[in-house]
Every structure is written in C-alpha cells, then in structure tokens.
C-alpha cells in the first residue's frame, strides 16, 4: 500500500474542504451571524493541516485499485467528520454523532435530517448543509482530479472508486479533462436552475440551497415542510431539474459534443424516463381524488416520483398520507435509483436493466437449454466481467441491507419505519415513511442506529466496495502496520 | 493558493494521438508519449489489454478493429493529429493509416515488417500518403551491422543520414584514458567530441576538466569514416569482423545477413525450423544456413563459436538470447550483440554486463516519438533523429534548422545555453563540424544536441 500518496491525496482533500467553507463564511458575514466564526476556525484549520500534509509530493505516485478505494473511503469519512465540527462548535447540533449524521447525509446526498426544526438553523449552517450536497453529488475526488494536475496515469482508480455505476468510462483521453468536463456540465446545469428559480421569484437564499440540493440529488430543504410552501412553478422547475440531474452525464456530453444520436441510443436513459412517466401516471390516478385540481395532483405525483427516483428526497406534500399503492411505488423507486454516471444513488437503472436481461436470458435457457445469447446494452455486448460484478453487487447490496435493517430494528421501532429508514439512507434518498417520513425526521433514533445509518449512507454513495475494502483485514494491516514493518527492515 | 496552481510542463498544445495495437511497441509509445503530455487514445481488439493499459496510464481505450471507419470516428479521428498503427499485421497497419488519412486530416505512421515489402516502403509511403513507415527489424539489423563494423564499440548510432556517428565504449582499467582530463585527451585526438559519460548510474555532460576513471561508459561523436581511427587514437584496439554467427533466422536475421554479406562478411545462420532454413537459403544464397537448435552448446562448438569474430543471438525469446550471450562470452572472444525484445527487468539486464544490446522496440518508438515531438513543436523546425541513451537519462537529438531563431547566427560562445546541454556537431551540407565557441548555427544546418533534459522539441529549447 502506497501510504505517502494516500496521505498526499487526503491532504489535498482537506485543503479543498477548508477552501469550500468560504461559502458559509461569506454567507455568515452577509447575514452578520456569529456562527461564521466556527466555520472560519474549522476552515482555516482544515486548509492549513491539508497544506501541511500535502506539502511534499510523494516520489511514488503509483495508484492501484486498492489505494483508490482506501483513499476514497477514508476521504469520505474524513470530510463527514470535518464538516460536522462547525455544527457542534456553533451549538446548533450539540451531539457529535448527530452532527456527523447530518454532514454525511449531506455529502452522500442523502438528505436525511435529525433536525426537528430546520428553520431555527442559522443561514450560515443552512447553506453549508446544502452545499455539502453539491460537493458530494459529483464527488470531491473527481473535483480534485479536475483542478489538480496529478502525474501518473493510475488516477483512474480514484474516479472508479468514487463515481457511481457499474463501469466508468472516460470522456476524454486525459482524466483531468474528463473530470473537468463533468464539472463544467454540472456547474452549468446548476447555474441554469438557479437562474430559472430566480425568474420564478424564489428568494435568492432558498434558490441556492434548493439548487444545490437538487443538483447533488441531496434533498436538504431550508424549510420545515421541505418544498411544500413553494409555488407550483417553482416546484415544477425543481422537480424537472431533479430528474435531469439523475440522467447519466454522458448523455449531456454527447449532446454537447454534437452527437445527439449517441445520446438517444442510451438504453439506460430511455428506461429511466419510461420509469418516471409510468410511475407518475400510476400515482397520479391513485391520488387524484385527494387533490382539488388535476394540475396539483400531476405536480405532486411527478415531483415525488422525480425526487425519489433520483434519490433527492425533497417533498412537496406529506406522501406518508398517500394510499399504500402509491407508497409502495415510491419505495420501489427508492431501490431503483438514478442512472449510473449521474449524481444520484440507489441500485442504478443500468444495473437493473442488465439484471432483468440476465433473468430473461435465464428464463429462455429453460426453453432452449443449449441456446447461446449475449446480453447487449446500447447495442454492444456486455462483457462477462460486468455481469459478474453486477451479480456480486446485487448480493452484497442485499446482504448489507438486510443486516442494517436487523441492526436498526434492535431499538424496536415499527417495521415500516425501520425498513424505510434503512432504504432511505442506504439509497441516499432522505425521508422514509412512518416515523421517518417527510414530515418527521431521524432525530428519535438511537445513536447506535444512527451510526449504522451513517455507514449505510457512505457505502451506498460509494457503491459498497470502497467501504467494505476498508475493513478488509489485509488493508487494515497495510494501513496501520506498514510503517512498523518498514522500520524493522531499516 | 497552492491548490489551483497549474504546473503544466509545457505551454505547447498537446497532440491528439491514436495508437492502434497495444503490443510491446504500442505500450512503449504510450508510456513515452503520455509522459510528454499528449492526449492518447488506444485501440485494440483485446479488451483485457485495453483495461490493463488504461489502468496504468492516463489515456482512453477503445476495444475494436482500428481499421473500421466507425471506430476511428468514435475515437475522434476528426480532431486527431497523428495515428500510429503498430498491430501485428502489416496489412492492417497500412489499412488503418490509409483510412485515417482519408477521413481525417491527421498524419499516419505504420509499422511494416514483412521483408517482401521492405524494398517498397518508400513507394508505399508516398502512394498511400503516410508520414512514415517504420520497419523495426530492419532498423535493428542496421544497428547491429553498425556495431559489427566497429566491434570495440558498445553502441553505434548514426546521425546526419549516416555522415556522423555516436560511439559508446567502456573505459577499461588498463586504458590509457584513466586519470586523464578531457582537454589533454583532446590534444592527442582530432575529429571527435566527447558528449556523455555514464558513471555510477549518473549521466554527465562533461566539460574539458572532466577526468576519466575506469568503468566509465563514454560516448563521443565523430564523422562516418573516422570511427575506427578515433577508437584507435583513444587507445582502444579495433579489429575487423570477417565472419559472424547468427542464432535464429527471423526477419532481423535476414536483414542483418543481407547487410553483412554486402560488406563481405561471411554469415552463418543457425535456425531450428527446416522450412524457414530453406526459405533463407533461397533468399541468401551466399550465407551458410544450418538447420539445428541454436541453444545446443555442442552444435555451437561444432559450428565454430570459439573462433567466430562475431556472435549475434536474434531468437524471438529474450531469455534464450541472454543465455546464449553469457555462454558465448565464456567460450569465445567474439564480439556479441544481443537483441532484447521486451524491456522487463531492465535492472537485471544492466547488471549482467552483456555488452552491446539492441532493442528493436525502442528503435521503433524513438523514431515515432521524434516525429511526434517535431510535429508538436512547429512546422519550421524538425527533429531528424532522436536517441535515448543510458536508461533514458540522456537524449541525443538532431534538429533541422528551418528558420532563423535566437539560436542561429550567433557564435556559440555568445549564446546562453542551459546547463547539461552540449552542441555536439553541426552538419552543414554534409560536412560535419565539431563546433568551437566561434562557430554559429545557421539556417539549413542540422545540429545535434546531447542533453540530460528531456522533451526538447525545438532548437531554441537549448537556450537558457
């Protein structure tokens, strides 16, 4: 294990996190809130410590997959801790576990909150909370790759570990260019949403927070009723942008690259929109009797479908009160998740499409036992390795899920609460149903459950394996014991 | 703010390069060209190779047939500056390049190895509109032949279309050079210039006060006809190779035999495959073709390895070549040149003290990289030749001077050169000038630079 490069990257990440705290600091100055001091202290400390850690560029810049995974997992744990400190210092979330839950929920773009009264928070902390979504959406390491020239080609392993989806392709030959293309698209779309929401007369502060939340598919609101009190137009804009941020970013790249044909060939994106339309349609008819106008029913159903499938987790109404049929659709959507290569979480549409195709193939093989058929996606054969990794992913996904539900159930909440609490955090959505529904929050869970859910959020965001690898005995030994071994040989 | 600083190595725009074929040469090219900051896309039909290489280097990989129009489109042929085809198949390479030059506006380089095309390479290149056709086996054979003409040298590289040579030799303990400074050696010799000394893993561009020690590897440049005399004047005994034993009858062996027979050196080729032996005897009526196992010590003895002047193992297996070399060193005094195809375990090879080694793969990639660098720099300046020496620690580059620049027209002593740079010779209309401080670089010259810096792409790079 190349420890010096791990240290170097972590140092760079700390520097960046320190720099990112400028946004809440500026906000604090504008609103003249004393909470800004906490961010000044933590931001400066993180910046300096980061500079110190990364001041010397390591000689050996070789990066293998395991280093990529370990760096990614450590980075995400670390930024959740650093980001949580200001909440504790300002006294807004006095307990550290609570603060860490809130921050990792932010960075992993989950949007589950332990705050009973969001509106009581200072503007400084509110914008930091939402900003963590934006940073976490595309990934802090991808950001690192975009802004810092890293020599050595093996950095692809960083991107692989952090980017969602079964396979990671580059858009440009150099990883730095690929990363900056992604961030440019991301930034461009966020700015577009901000402009549109401002035109729709949303206050600037809300606009920023909501845009950050939907861009990262996070879901922290700034009001207690999430998006309920916004106007119809504002909800439409937010809902549509949520759906757009859940699309594979290659889709936009191809369009910008003047190859729209390739964009529309993407099976994943087509399936994704089909699922959105079908679910909206079903829920719309199911909840129509409860609404006064067709428009409001359509808006509520679309907003909720888009918000849940992209794993954003905003809510415009309390869907906990909807009929079971609609609720079950929403829970199913929680597991489907957004497209690979987007900012959303969940199981990912592309995996689902391939998994269903394998099932169909298996069924066919009962009829023609000797038939040979390759599974195709976007007109190209899916490699056997990809199929295998999807199967393994599915099993791991289920095992972690079941174990988490079991662990959370210890404290004795009802089944729906327990089940959806895990589903909502594991898939990075935000609100669940019943006691963790859109009008409630995660505050009443025990600290043990919160720690389990923090782990779920992180492993869900990083697609399981980076987090699991971190606890692999060989890696633990490497990370913590390597230094001694070196000294012994000297 | 440290984190947003850019430390781009050069402000020159990177080239978009497509490489077709991810074999030994392909990988060498990727390593070097991506280190120099170019945007590289690799195409190969083997998905595993692509995934390996994209994990190791910062490049994009595409799986498929590089000669397919739609695949080249997908790889972005429209914005590509250079396509390099180095697959196993000559015909596929030519097809890739032909298609690329038709649909894109890029230059194309193909590797063509089949001896049947070897006499037609220039015709093919011009007719198909390619920038370069490269034949590594032939180049390797030429390099072996150059070394055999000067058997006391470890390495002989040619510059200025063969008018000048860079010769590498090792200073023995008994050498008269030991303990002497360059300026005093220079009094006794003429027409040569010491360019590089390699000592304890360090490459040094020496000045006049440098003192030689035993074990130094020394390179100097001299003109073509003076090589033998130069070595003699340095107190290095030279002899004339009259017969040569070649193990393995592959393409390189054929080219080498052809060269050597042309110089009246008698050639003996030992080849395992009977059919190939018959082909060779048809192609090379003046050579002695032995059908037998070249790794059989008895056979080698029978065929006179102990008395041979030169011994060249050219089999396709590096391990065999190395073992044959070590064996030959023990049983004979022959001059040995070893061909090594792969480049793994370079440190081990260095420690074995094999003597002269040629790397066909490096010869190929050097020629291509020289072209890519020149293309990246500007249209008026060009790199004629490029050699990497001493484990890539030293580059010897020959620039063609196409236009006036700050480096031209001024006596060298008035130019502010960078450290670790030496102007080794100036080739003016085929006349080799070993420059003194009074000489100037003029438009139309070619100038050879030896430097421990890497990545020079224009003559002005030598200026501080």
Automatic annotation (TrEMBL), chain A:
It is a multi-pass membrane protein. This is TrkH family potassium uptake protein. One of its GO terms (cellular component) is plasma membrane. Belongs to the TrkH potassium transport family. The lineage of its organism: Bacteria, Bacillati, Bacillota, Clostridia, Lachnospirales. It comes from the Bacteria. It is found in: Cell inner membrane. The chain crosses the membrane at residues 9-30, 36-53, 65-89, 131-150, 181-200, 236-256, 268-288, 328-347, 390-410, 464-481. Keywords: Cell inner membrane, Cell membrane, Ion transport, Membrane, Metal-binding, Potassium, Potassium transport, Transmembrane, Transmembrane helix, Transport. K(+) binds at residues 109-110, 218, 311-312, 428. InterPro entries: Cat_transpt, TrkH. GO terms for molecular function: metal ion binding; potassium:chloride symporter activity. The keyword Metal-binding applies. Coiled coil: none annotated.
UniProtKB/TrEMBL annotation, chain B:
Residues 14-129, 241-364 form the RCK N-terminal domain. Pfam families: TrkA_C, TrkA_N. Residues 154-237, 384-464 form the RCK C-terminal domain. This is Trk system potassium uptake protein TrkA. SUPFAM superfamilies: NAD(P)-binding Rossmann-fold domains, TrkA C-terminal domain-like. NCBIfam families: PRK09496.1-2, PRK09496.1-5, PRK09496.3-2. It comes from Candidatus Weimeria bifida. InterPro entries: K_uptake_TrkA, NAD(P)-bd_dom_sf, RCK_C, RCK_C_sf, RCK_N, Trk_Ktr_HKT_K-transport. Keywords: Ion transport, NAD, Potassium, Potassium transport, Transport. GO terms for cellular component: plasma membrane. One of its GO terms (molecular function) is potassium ion transmembrane transporter activity.
